[in-house]
Amino acid sequence: MKENILLVLQIITIDFFTAFGLYSLLFLIVSIFTKRLILQKVDEEATQFISFAGVIYFSVWIIGLLVFYFESNLEEQSRMFNRMFGPYWLGFWLQPILYFVITQLLRIKRIRKNALLRILFSFLLIISIERFVILTTALHRDYLPSSWTMYNDLDIYPENYFLMLLAKILIFLVFVGVYYLIKSRLKVFINSKKTNIEKIH
Q1: What is d(CA 23, CA 33) in angstroms, rounded to the nearest whole number?
Q2: Cα–Cα distance, 201 to 190 (Å, whole number)
Q3: How crowded is residue 5: how many other Cβ atoms within 10 Å of its Cβ?
């Protein structure tokens, strides 16, 4: 069960939150050149989807927290309790609460339409606190210039990296489309049930 919880959290953070951050940056650039209604509609659905994903993430995180705590032995429970409420409690709670707050703030139209807040939220979703610490640590290491390399053995060149980012955004938009279809079908189903109940009465 622990592995499943971690997998779900990883999928939401990497495939949804990071992808939404990338999508938001692309949307802001495209919206400078065009103000089409379809673009606004897609953005509205994308923000609704990410708000829903934020609720799912936080719920799964809380459930995971309880599962990890109660399935651990007494020593691990003590360490976990110390991390949760000890001197470094902020590091434990900050990232999940930040993800939840950002995704729920996007429900508010004024915040959603604010370009500066969208850029800030995008970077906070793309670069988590953990990634930021890793990046900062990596940049401050004392590497010799002779050991610097531009690309690694995976052949990730700028054009390949750009295609990967574009693919991530497209996959995210596919999920938004599926979410929109399911939501539309549910609305039709609920409305038909209400109509049938009203006819009976």
Answers
A1: 16
A2: 17
A3: 16
Q: Label residue 118 exposed, middle or buried (CB < 10 Å: 0-12, 13-18, 19+).
A: buried
Relative orientation angle of helices 89-105 and 37-70, to the nearest 10 degrees: 150
pTM of the predicted model over 0.85: no
**Could you read off the pLDDT tens digit of each residue along the chain, which spans 201 residues?**
778 888 888 889 988 999 999 999 999 999 888 878 888 899 999 999 999 999 999 999 999 999 888 888 888 888 888 888 888 888 888 889 999 999 999 999 999 999 999 999 999 998 876 666 665 565 555 554 554 454 444 455 556 778 888 899 999 999 999 999 999 999 888 888 777 777 776
What angle (nearest 5°) sits at the alpha carbon of residue 97, between those of residues 108 and 56? 75
> What letter would DSSP give residue 148?
-
